[in-house]
């Protein structure tokens, strides 16, 4: 949902390049105007790489420096360094007098004859300072120009050194703070220095929106609540800032405060009721809140207006119908998603919905008739078929489908993982372990595989301590994942660490209300003698999922 909330904002609200040249003044040929239009639509859809390419081709065909500048800025935003260099060189060629074009070529290029990138960049900033007009712009572009450098800490130190001669330039302090934020802020000294730098930038340039967003990002690393308070205070004085509103809404979503996130977008929508992007944001968050009537009404309005990338609105409407158990409507709506990135997923969802209707054989025939585009889609179709069978409790059938698919692709991590999960249900614990170990060999940083193997050892063997070590590795890779938190809690329970177990499980359940997590937390509370609290946890989830087998079995076993 976080992605959706951000994607629902217009490009400007996501710190895209300023659209000062979005509608070119000169008269261009139809071909050039078409490319410009493609670029603007791509930006609106959150596809900056496509936009940069379109603008570059328009600039090249029209031989226009304004378009070349626009292409350079968008390519930097999209982290398309090679394209940014091509566009900057074209910009410099078309406008040899442009100091900014020359700066961009230098910053994007490899170290010059001296072999010293720092020396080259120092000359860029010295020239800009002498010019007096482009120094701030040069600092604003610096981090984007260095974005391909893999060592972000070294970039931070480089930017810090480049900024030192310009203590009175707000953009210089901003550049240092942004470079610090790009390191991930895991180092205390860099975090503290970045906070000082962004505060200094705001002292020199009060209310500067770009700096406000970076400060909020820095605050959020240590305290999301402080970042939320800061953005709310800023918006109290600058209520029309869509970028700050988007950042605040994103923080609310991360904290699962969906009502607050929707309220932020709703206030903007109240001020601009015809803004379809804001309507989309409100509708998407309403889905997350399970406020399906509101979401459906708004998406129907957006559909009538023809808003959104191909298939996006129709897919949401189909999901809403599926979640509200209107399966015929869901299938009809998924069939409407004929174009765009969601078209293939919509076909797989049709089969899943048919399975929910009890039409498993028909769903399998539907999947068999599909025409996958490449091996990835072939694997996804087999995974979908196996899931159909699992949902129908035909684990042996699912096992057969996945193993057959695995013959053609024995090192598919996705298939290996799915086979392991089904093998565990069939009590083939040794096979589940070997399959998951192979996934980890192929993808050592796969948190889900580490968690699955660890949980299997904890739950199905006497090797709980060994399983906990694997789960701890998964937790380090994905510390917010509620299912990994659940595994951490269950492992500590199996090892007798009840207090630690309750801590992890309570956090997991608050992050994701789930019947199996509730079953685990209730069992821990029951073991601690807190049987009233255990019953409250169980009953709360039984209201939502009265037929979950894990939760039902736990309740029947402990509180018959």
What does this structure look like?
The chain is mainly α and 560 residues long. It has a domain at 1-109: Tetratricopeptide repeat domain (Serine Threonine Protein Phosphatase 5, Tetratricopeptide repeat), CATH 1.25.40.10. The chain has 32 helices and no strands. It has helices at residues 2-7, 30-44, 48-62, 65-77, 81-94, 99-108, 117-131, 135-145, 152-163, 170-182, 188-204, 209-222, 224-237, 242-254, 258-271, 276-288, 292-304, 312-323, 327-336, 343-356, 360-368, 375-391, 395-408, 413-425, 429-442, 447-460, 464-477, 482-494, 498-511, 515-527, 531-544, 549-558. Helix 21 (360-368) runs antiparallel to helix 22 (375-391).
What is the average per-residue confidence, as pLDDT, rounded to a whole number?
A: 87
For the record, what is the CATH homologous superfamily label of the domain at 1-109? Tetratricopeptide repeat domain
CATH architectural grouping of the domain at 1-109? Alpha Horseshoe
CATH class call of the domain at 1-109 = Mainly Alpha
Please state the structural category: mainly alpha
Secondary structure layout:
Elements: H1 2-7, H2 30-44, H3 48-62, H4 65-77, H5 81-94, H6 99-108, H7 117-131, H8 135-145, H9 152-163, H10 170-182, H11 188-204, H12 209-222, H13 224-237, H14 242-254, H15 258-271, H16 276-288, H17 292-304, H18 312-323, H19 327-336, H20 343-356, H21 360-368, H22 375-391, H23 395-408, H24 413-425, H25 429-442, H26 447-460, H27 464-477, H28 482-494, H29 498-511, H30 515-527, H31 531-544, H32 549-558
Helix pairs in contact: 2-3, 3-4, 3-5, 4-5, 5-6, 6-7, 6-8, 7-8, 8-10, 9-10, 10-11, 10-12, 11-12, 12-13, 12-14, 13-14, 14-15, 15-16, 16-17, 17-18, 18-19, 19-20, 20-21, 20-22, 21-22, 22-23, 23-24, 24-25, 25-26, 26-27, 26-28, 27-28, 28-29, 28-30, 29-30, 30-31, 30-32
